[in-house]
Specification:
Blueprint: H1 2-8, H2 12-21, H3 25-37, H4 47-56, H5 58-62, H6 74-87, H7 89-97, H8 105-116, H9 121-135, H10 151-173
C-alpha cells in the first residue's frame, strides 16, 4: 500500500529504500539508476551513494538488520555499476575497492577496462588498490583481515594485466609485413 503512494508523491528514493528492506534490491537499483541518469527527478535524492552502498556490500555490513540481505550475484553488481562508472567514475570505483565487495578481482579489472577503458584512471587506481592490498596487515584488535583481494588473486590479476600490456606494446612495435 505504501509503494503506490510513494511513487505518486515522487518519493522514489524512499521507495527504493523500502524495496531494499523488502529484499527487492534489483527494483531499488533500477529506481536509483533512473534517478542517477535523470529519468526520474527527486530533490535531495542521493542515487549514486545509495547504489554504491548496496553494490559494494557496505549497506549489508552497516547494520545487523541488513545482514539478512542476500549478496547480489557478481553479474548483477557489474551490470548495475555501469551507469555509476560512466557518470561518476570515482564513486563507481568505490564499488570494487570496498572492504565488503565480493566480486573476484579479475572480473572487476575486466569490467573496469571494458567500461572505463584499458588505460583509464579508474583502471590504474584499481591496480594501485590491488597492489596496496598485497601489503595490508590484519586490522583491528580481533586480528580479522580486511576483505581485499587475496594475495594470490591480486598477484595473478596484476601479472595478467602486465603481460597484456607488454603483448600490446610488442605488437605495436612489430613492423607490418607485406604480401
Amino acid at each position: 500500500q505504501c509503494e503506490p503512494r510513494l511513487h505518486a508523491a515522487g518519493k522514489f528514493a524512499w521507495l527504493a529504500r523500502l524495496l531494499v528492506h523488502r529484499g527487492e534490491q534489483e527494483r531499488a537499483l533500477e529506481l536509483w539508476a533512473k534517478l542517477g541518469r535523470g529519468e526520474l527527478v527527486e530533490r535531495g535524492a542521493a542515487p549514486v551513494e545509495e547504489t554504491v552502498a548496496l553494490l559494494s556490500g557496505a549497506l549489508r555490513a552497516s547494520a545487523p538488520a541488513m545482514h539478512r540481505l542476500p549478496l547480489l550475484p557478481a553479474e548483477r553488481v557489474l551490470s548495475y555499476s555501469c551507469w555509476v562508472l560512466l557518470l561518476h567514475p570515482e564513486a563507481g570505483l568505490a564499488i570494487f575497492t570496498s572492504t565488503h565487495q565480493h566480486v573476484p578481482a579479475e572480473r572487476c579489472l575486466d569490467h573496469l577496462m571494458g567500461v572505463c577503458g584499458e588505460g583509464s584512471l579508474e583502471v590504474m587506481r584499481y591496480l594501485e588498490w590491488l597492489l596496496s592490498s598485497l601489503k595490508r596487515e590484519p586490522c583491528g584488535s580481533s586480528g580479522r583481515q580486511e576483505r581485499v583481494a587475496a594475495p594470490a588473486e591480486a598477484e595473478h590479476v596484476l601479472c595478467k594485466w602486465l603481460i597484456s600490456q607488454r603483448t600490446r606494446a610488442a605488437a605495436q612495435r612489430r613492423p607490418a609485413v607485406g604480401p
